Amino acid sequence: MTETTPKYDILGIGNAIVDVVARAEDTFLSRHDMHKGAMILIDSAMADTIYAAMPPGQESSGGSAANTCAVAAGLGSRVAYIGKVADDQLGGVFRHDINAVGVHFPTTPLSGGAPTARCLILVTPDGQRTMNTFLGACVTLGEDDVDPALVAACAVTYLEGYLFDPPAAQAAFRKAAEAAHAAGRRVALSLSDAFCVNRHRAAFLDLVANHVDILFANETEITALYERNSFEEAAEAARKDVALAALTRSEAGSLILQGAETVQVAAAPTKVVDTTGAGDAYAAGFLAGLTSGRSLDLCGRMGSIAAAEVISHYGARPETDLRKLMPA
Amino acid sequence: MTETTPKYDILGIGNAIVDVVARAEDTFLSRHDMHKGAMILIDSAMADTIYAAMPPGQESSGGSAANTCAVAAGLGSRVAYIGKVADDQLGGVFRHDINAVGVHFPTTPLSGGAPTARCLILVTPDGQRTMNTFLGACVTLGEDDVDPALVAACAVTYLEGYLFDPPAAQAAFRKAAEAAHAAGRRVALSLSDAFCVNRHRAAFLDLVANHVDILFANETEITALYERNSFEEAAEAARKDVALAALTRSEAGSLILQGAETVQVAAAPTKVVDTTGAGDAYAAGFLAGLTSGRSLDLCGRMGSIAAAEVISHYGARPETDLRKLMPA
Predict the structure, then answer these.
(1) Do B93 and A57 touch (CB under 8 A)?
(2) pTM for the structure as a whole
(3) What ipTM was assigned to the predicted interfaces of this complex?
């Protein structure tokens, strides 16, 4: 274990994506064979087809781990991010927004290839978001984008499960996990999506058991990972598998498991407008607390408060100064 | 006067712009020498400088007349729009959004030149917006983009005052006004901004007196146009000058003048979040009413309700179905 003080609290690695958010009725989802609440991968042609059919949208920077980085930076954490955009207008938007919240973003943009990734997000009247991701430039994120010295300088390296979709990113993922552990740092993983878990279950099970120190998942993701029928059984499986797990259950709050310790945290009250980014914001609040030495209960409450702010409006990034909402 | 039934109710002509909206403190405005509530034109270098200093933003389609078109289409009007984007990603966003609300948008995009126009909008805690516009591709909008047959097919041709800033657009503006009157249609003008009025007062005075049938202006714009000290004096000057004037006064509502007739309309109650697009939405509601044969009082109320919805959230376009908010 190194004794060096980390330069950054959190290093996020993920798919660098610009969100296009539009409101839609449930009939829009069924007409386009979308599974409500899920994320599916689409190709360029399908992106054009869905976009052409979509209502007017609002564009803003997204990407699961990038959202977490932006929220954590807003809470005062020192944050770095690795992800691949193209050198186009949307890539410029992504870079501007993550830099503007103070996140160090050293990844070289892709030139002359696919455009910056877009996620077409339909928000139904119940506040649920359904996501259609065109990965674009993200598919070129690879090992070369991971600087082991940067990883070693970060207390926690946070990886999104979506990284397992673009093939080259898996190698980046493993390289980062190895570099983190070699430097005595911790590795966190978010399972991202139940469908993503189903696509990559064997790899995730291996990772969680052998390479992950902190696991984030919601109820459907954790039951999908361990193929259990109840949340309780899946949670106990996670307790045995990983040093620290933070499991979210929407309005039922979150459950934090660390060895024999169990902490139950209530959800922060809010009016749900758009659930996009809820899990990302929870992880941000939790990790901001953890890397500043707070108790698990306080980490969970910081996660809940950050998530509550993000789901109270359209878009995955905070619209208020989160520090003012946090407990002392 | 032609007796042909118009194919469209409204043809908007304006600067086709994508908005980048961010929240900022008043100190940000003073640090960058911005005049709160005004629109200034900036060049590409200044756009880069301001953008680099700006907080994270949300991108959405804007442009004054384009906003009016989008709102009117949402109210059921048949609408067309002329404006110049580039064939880049932001141009694609603009085209998608205006098509998605059902607006006919035939203008050929600019290829190989300046990028799509951007307006960097800072929204201060009081809800006021301060706008910095990089005109980009808009400066190439010209006479050739105005199809007289399209103008002749529209009951009202609506021109934004901002069109007087890019030089070639003035010719487009005059060509459209002539084509409209030749076909027995009406020409509407929005003064856009008091600073814009000051830049082009002589041209605006000539237009209003000789070529405009319906004038939209707020209190500062109408007093700037006629260089009067009071709203009342400026309103009386407008009454003499133009067949129909709709003058807005924020929370004090609007005053509609038509010959000897005077109609006072109250503002619709709302909580102000971001005033971007308030005047555009008022004009949309008003014109949607006018072109469907409503009374002046009802036209004004439709304008007030549309404006109230738009200022209740960030961004210049409605987030709800406006038809449900309208009086029967």
Answers:
(1) yes
(2) 0.95
(3) 0.93
